[in-house]
Amino acid sequence: MAYETVFSYPNYTAEEHETWRLLFKKQMELLPNRACQEYMDGLSKLSFGTNEIPKLADISERLKKATGWQLVRVEGLVPEKEFFELLAHKLFPSTDFIRKREDLTYTPAPDMFHDLFGHTSLLTNEEFGDFFQAIGQAGARAEGELLKEIQRLYWFTVEFGLIKNKGQKRIYGSGILSSPREVVYCLSDKVIKHEFNVEKITHQDYDIWHMQEELFVIDSFEQLKTEFINFGKRTQLLV
Ligand SMILES: [Fe+2]
């Protein structure tokens, strides 16, 4: 695997910087009392800045200081085995391009707003970071049906997870946090919320094209980490 870890800063256009600015502003209006505290704490540790597209180099440096995670630059979606290998090594693959203006509220393929704003804040959290590395280790070893189970677990936690903060349901999934529509929708009564249950999630199909109708709520990142590691040991994906 050859990935860039020394990043050059692309020559973004004024419109691209403005796209970041608009997305950032919108999400910052929506996230208080919706995003979990751990995510908000991570945002302040990474201090993205509101006006310009952040530099991968800066974010990677701050992550490294916080928990040892680093970024690698990728062109787009990474083949899943490589993706899990990277996570196993505490490397998170991020793009450095931003969505087109016409895709402001919804982008079918992840861009850097999803990768940075959605994913990196929680990598400043030790418990979540440990879980994220463990899902990488397990995913890198899994094949067949077990690999599908890991993908479902990834979907309903990393991308679309909810957590309880002082009894209130809050968001930690990056697929929700980087989407203005999903942030509001996911906490509404239209969405069924289940208690976190590894067994149930590993058999739960999901739809990548529509807003999620069913979500799972963890009590804490410690619970997520512990229950995932237990699953990994049971299935012999983790030692
Ligand atoms: Fe993602």
Structural write-up:
The structure is a single chain. With about 240 residues, the protein is α/β, with parallel strands linked by helices. It has one domain: Phenylalanine Hydroxylase (Orthogonal Bundle), CATH 1.10.800.10. It is about 50% helix and about 10% strand. The strands form two sheets. A four-stranded mixed sheet has the order 4-3-6-5. Strand 3 (about 160-165) and strand 4 (about 170) form a beta hairpin. The chain is globular, with a radius of gyration of 17 Å. Bound molecules: fe (ii) ion. The site of fe (ii) ion has 7 residues, from helix 5 and helix 8. Fe (ii) ion (FE2) binds near residues 114, 119, 159 and 175.
Question: Topology, pairings included?
Answer:
Elements: H1 14-30, H2 37-46, H3 56-67, E1 70-73, H4 80-88, E2 91-94, H5 112-120, H6 126-141, H7 144-159, E3 162-165, E4 168-171, H8 174-177, H9 180-186, E5 192-195, H10 198-201, E6 214-218, H11 221-234
The protein binds fe (ii) ion.
Fe (ii) ion (FE2) is lined by residues 110, 114, 118-119, 159, 174-175.
Largest sheet, if any? 4 strands, mixed
Which architecture would the CATH scheme give at its second level? Orthogonal Bundle
Number of strands: 6
Bound ligand species: fe (ii) ion
Main CATH class? Mainly Alpha
Strand content: 5-15%
Q: What coarse outline follows from CA principal-axis ratios? A: globular
At the fourth level of CATH, the homologous superfamily is Aromatic amino acid hydroxylase
**Topology order in helix (H) and strand (E) letters:** HHHEHEHHHEEHHEHEH
Q: Which regions have little confidence, pLDDT < 50, spanning 5+ residues? A: none
Gyration radius from CA atoms, angstroms: 17 Å
Task: State the strand order across the main sheet.
Answer: 4-3-6-5
| Helical residues, percent | 40-55%
Distance between the termini: 24 Å
CATH topology: Phenylalanine Hydroxylase
What is the count of distinct domains?
Answer: 1
Average pLDDT reading: 94
By DSSP (H or I, 4+ residues per run), the number of helices equals 11
